[in-house]
Amino acid sequence: MVQESMNQDVLIFYKLIVLYMLNRAAFPITKAQVADFILEKEYMDFLTLQQVFAELSESEMITAKAIRNRTHLTITEQGRETLYFFQNRISSTTKDKIDKFFRENELQMRNEVSILSDYTKTSAGEYEAHLSATERGIRLIDITLSVPDESCAAAICNNWQQKNQAVYQRIIEQLF
Description:
Helix content: 55-70%
Largest sheet: 3 strands, antiparallel
Low-confidence stretches: none
Radius of gyration: 19 Å
Strand content: 15-25%
Distance between the termini: 69 Å
Mean pLDDT: 88
Number of strands: 6
Order of helices and strands: HEHHEEHHEEEH
Strand order of the largest sheet: 1-3-2
């Protein structure tokens, strides 16, 4: 019984760490980005982290949205309220480590989630590549390209991650 209570307290601490990270970000962050920090600092193991994600999602403290091969996480209002009431359970040392992680990686993290690409198969048997770029919550560009096969769609999505700025710049130059 004491062991179960201790495990529950530890699990609550882990959930608060994830909520603090999501609240700290001014943009959705991916499960992988959260995992990179948590696993590097050895706060918990991978399986426990997956349990934390699932329980936070089930309790509607976070939302998870799958986009291609990434899951983007956002804290909900209920998650913020919970964090507000229990954030004193997170040590200042842990908060400082999270804050430092964001200071050092925020630009890269923001770029990873603000440049999106995905593709779907149409009813006609072709594929559509959906490409977008956002900055500070404002959608800069949103393009849908129809292509004949999946390999073309996948290549376009992969190239978008590397060449989005050049493509955007070229379009702006041509239209202005």
